[in-house]
Write a structure and sequence with these properties.
The chain contains nine helices and 13 strands. By secondary structure, it is α+β, with helices and mostly antiparallel strands. The radius of gyration is 21 Å and the shape is globular.
């Protein structure tokens, strides 16, 4: 039995959403009430842009969060990011957690177009409607590109004497897309067993370089989204069908230095039996480059179950720049080690 009830966690998360909507849409922006949704000793991880010009991924204490947010949100076009609709969230009463997806949405540039980018968050509750930990993960390249497109659209609208429309919470919080769900419920035990089977298949696939074992865990009509590197050299974010996924995994298994990535470890997982979902964090770690240095990074993923130990949907989200930097560092160290052995 967890320290807090499902009802309290739901209430605390919905309170955070309401306060976020109100505070970030305020003019001038006033985040005073939003800061009260976090404890004084809050720990915050930003696994996208990061802090201190990207050199740090963690800050500690509400004062540090306040200083970061007050400066970060004052810079155009960031100050025009006003809406944060939430397509889904899950609470875990055993651990006092919530995981969710936020859509970081810009103001209507005057054309009615929606410019937004998704982020996943992992929150740990501290009681009294306050959260003591938050980790946000997103692709900063996609986020920056989205804001650049918004800025150009806004400049064109302004050149045609189109003013910025007033704030409209109905427009700003309306979800512009939806995901098809299967109206069936599976037990937590079945979901846990199926997820364990998936992880074990991934371990065997990476260890033996047999990606077809991993692909076999998906349905024939699986939808796979990759919001980091993407597919086809980044031009696509989604694959459909097990055959396409198998071909992609086969390619990864032969690419240097990607093929030297170890079988991933699952740091945590949250299961939603109502929807048949599993959301989890994995650790992508490279083999020892030769000097014992540990090179690793974090990825958040979401999977949807289809029954019979197969999954019909998977979405991965991470920072491809950090991934590329890790791979480049491993390659450099590995080559140095190989040269030293000659």
């Amino acid at each position: 039995m967890g320290k807090w009830s499902v009802a309290e966690l739901n209430d605390a998360f919905l309170h955070l959403r309401r306060v976020t909507d109100r505070c970030f849409a305020s003019e001038p922006r006033d985040l005073s009430d939003w800061y009260q949704c976090y404890t004084e000793d809050v720990v915050w991880h930003d696994l996208g842009f990061g802090f201190n010009n990207g050199w740090d991924q963690e800050i500690r204490g509400l004062g540090a969060v306040r200083a970061w947010m007050d400066s970060h949100n004052a810079v155009p076009p960031q100050d025009s990011m006003k809406y944060y609709p939430v397509p889904w969230y899950i609470v875990d009463a055993e651990r006092g957690w919530a995981v969710c997806e936020w859509r970081n949405r810009m103001l209507d540039p005057g054309t009615g177009e929606v410019f937004e980018e998704k982020a996943y968050s992992h929150l740990i509750y501290g009681g009294n409607r306050q959260w003591r930990y938050e980790a946000d993960i997103y692709n900063p390249l996609r986020m920056r590109t989205m804001m650049a497109h918004w800025l150009r659209t806004r400049e064109k609208a302004a050149a045609n004497d189109i003013p910025l429309p007033p704030l409209d919470m109905n427009w700003g919080l309306h979800l512009v897309d939806s995901e098809e769900e299967v109206p069936r419920r599976w037990s937590r035990e079945e979901l846990e067993a199926a997820f364990d089977a998936y992880v074990n298949a991934c371990l065997r696939a990476r260890s033996g370089r047999r990606p077809e074992e991993q692909a076999a865990q998906f349905t024939e009509d699986v939808v796979y989204r990759e919001l980091g590197f993407g597919f086809d050299q980044g031009w696509k974010e989604e694959l459909r069908g097990r055959t396409a996924v198998t071909n992609w995994l086969n390619g990864l298994a032969t690419i240097y230095p990607n093929r030297h990535m170890r079988p991933f470890e699952v740091n945590w997982r949250v299961i939603d039996p109502e929807r048949g979902w599993v959301v989890y964090e994995s650790l992508d770690q490279m083999e020892d480059p030769g000097n014992g240095e540990v090179l690793q990074m974090r990825t958040f993923s979401r999977m949807k179950y289809a029954g019979s130990n197969q999954w019909r949907f998977k979405e991965d989200i991470y920072d491809p720049m950090k991934m590329r930097a890790m791979l480049a560092r491993w390659r450099e160290l590995h080559q140095q080690h190989q040269a030293g052995r000659r």
